[in-house]
Amino acid sequence: MHNRLSQIQPYTRAILKGHLCSSGVPYSMMDRPIIAIANSWNEIVPGHVHLRELADHIKKGVLEAGGYPLEFNTIAVCDGIAQGHDGMKYSLPSRDVIADSVETMIRAHEIFDGMVMISSCDKIVPGMLMSAARLNLPTLVFLGGVMPNYIKPKESKAARQEFLSGSLDEQGLVAVTRKYYPCAGVCPFLGTANTMQGLSEALGMALPNSSWMRALSDEQLHAAEDAGRRAVELVKKKIRVRDILTKEAFENAISVLLAMGGSLNACLHLPAIAKEIGIDLPLDAFDRISRKVPFIAAVTPNNNNFTTNDLQRAGGVPAIMKELSPLLHLDALTVTGETVKENIADAKVKDREIIHPLDAPIEAQGGIAVLKGNLAEDGALIKQSAVPEDLMAFQGKAIVFDSEEQFDEAYHNGAIQENQVVVIRYEGPKGGPGMRELHRCTEILSRYKKIALITDGRFSGASAGLSVGYMSPEAAEGGTLALVRNGDPIAIDVPNRDLTLLVDDETLEKRRKENKRTK
After folding, report:
1. Which of 286, 449, 450 is CA-nearest to residue 380?
2. How far does the chain reach from its first CA to its final CA, in angstroms?
3. Do residues 393 and 443 touch, judged by C-beta distance below 8 A?
4. Helix axes 316-324 and 247-259, enclosed angle (nearest 10)
5. Exposed, middle or buried by CB within 10 Å (0-12, 13-18, 19+), for 56?
6. Where do the DSSP E strands lie in 350-503?
7. Of 469, 269, 449, whose CA–CA distance to 384 is shortest?
8. Nearest residue to 425 via CA among 475, 488, 489, 485
9. Which residues contact 430 (CB under 8 A, 6 or more apart)?
């Protein structure tokens, strides 16, 4: 078959081949399909430290199938390390750096016929998928998989609370953490990292059952070789990204997201990927689907007895999709060259304590809800699957902070009390800038029985409780959140999707005129 190199003007092609020979590429291999291996390996992020080894197995599969692999790298930020300080301001913007860097490497060299994207973790998977959507090459995603956990999530959470209360020292907390995060792989809870790994598969962009494989297991290494072979097959069959990433594929992914109570950050990432193709995914689409797709699979932070290792043991994404099949677009194409229906034909739920039947769900609605009201005219997000039943409707008086740092200082000074609505604003995309995750804040507030948090910042997928975020318009854009003052009553009604500042319009208009920060 003719590859992309053969289409380049002869003189340019000859010089180009000379440069590739200088890099160690055999001249005899240059007539093969050239497969880009876009890797996000580094020695900092637990979910990425092993991706160099996975790349070697993928390359082996590419060569076996008659292609030739060429690898390049991109950045990866660890949200666990970036939490709780200014470093988090770089996390969400890194998604676009990743997308741009992959696009740059592919488009600048113009030699690639297909691509395998090796990735895991929060912003890296969506960043790579964004670039895949732009480039529209035959492409698949190979995921880093999950680290094992030797203790249950509730033991890790308990140790963190002991540290915050002063009853456990640093060395003790590190020792417990190493049992929960023992080695390479994605952290085992259903945070943004594991959510986006699962949604890559639900979109049809990753091989079936590959989302939550144990990192560096024999199963994963064999799957990596298969991914290399499949990439060459995608080139031969001329199956491109936009043949797979259709509106139906995104709706399938949203359904899986809601059925397992995945990270709220997916409500930022899926629309960003879809936008690259010209598909509109407004927040209302998530709420609409949430009203018909039930919550059927609960692992931490929705259930602190189980992790994504248990979810994989129960059948993984194929089993979830098999259970959801009456609600899915089963004719959607995937990187296997087959449809969703064909991929999940033999899938089985192996543990009903983990994945519940569609007709006997954990909750009748999906794990995410979109709230609106005078505090968030364009919407705000909450993971309703992780909210205690007695907090689904809550009213309290506001205590207001203009940054995460202000909140942290107030907490250490004893200013946070039960029955308050903690407001942390100017943490949105513009106000932060960078839209930090406020996971450390939600961990602190989990010590209180009756309390709420609302913010124009984001949350980690591990966050739980009555935590409302992603508020739009953000405070820095003149949203009503900028007008809240200490003592203002705020009502949150999750079942009715309402978020209201109980202050009259005349008072709010007066405050708006006085507010110099957003003028």
Report:
1. 286
2. 61
3. no
4. 100
5. middle
6. 368-373, 376-383, 393-401, 420-424, 452-455, 467-472, 489-493, 498-501
7. 469
8. 475
9. 474, 476, 477
Tokens of 51: 């991706």
User: CB count, 10 Å around CB of 362?
Assistant: 17
The 10s digit of each residue's pLDDT in 14-70 is 999 999 999 999 999 999 999 999 999 999 999 999 999 999 999 999 999 999 999
Catalytic residues: 460
Least Cα distance to 128 among 23, 199, 233 occurs for 199
If DSSP codes are grouped into helix, strand and coil, which group holds residue 401? strand
How far apart CA 513 and CA 446 sit, in angstroms, is 36
CA dihedral 20, 22, 28, 30 (to 10 degrees): 0
* Ranges in the chain, pLDDT < 70: 1, 518-519
Give start and end residues of each alpha helix (H) in 110-191: 124-135, 153-165, 170-180
Residues sharing a CB contact under 8 Å with residue 249, sequence separation 6 or more, in sequence order: 203, 204, 329, 332
Domains observed in the chain: 32-148+183-344 (3.40.50.2300), 373-518 (3.50.30.80)
Asked whether the beta carbons of 304 and 154 are under 8 A apart, the reply is: yes
Cβ burial, residue 256 (10 Å; 0-12/13-18/19+): buried
Count of alpha carbons within 13 angstroms of residue 331, beta-carbon side = 0
Mean pLDDT of all residues in the chain?
95
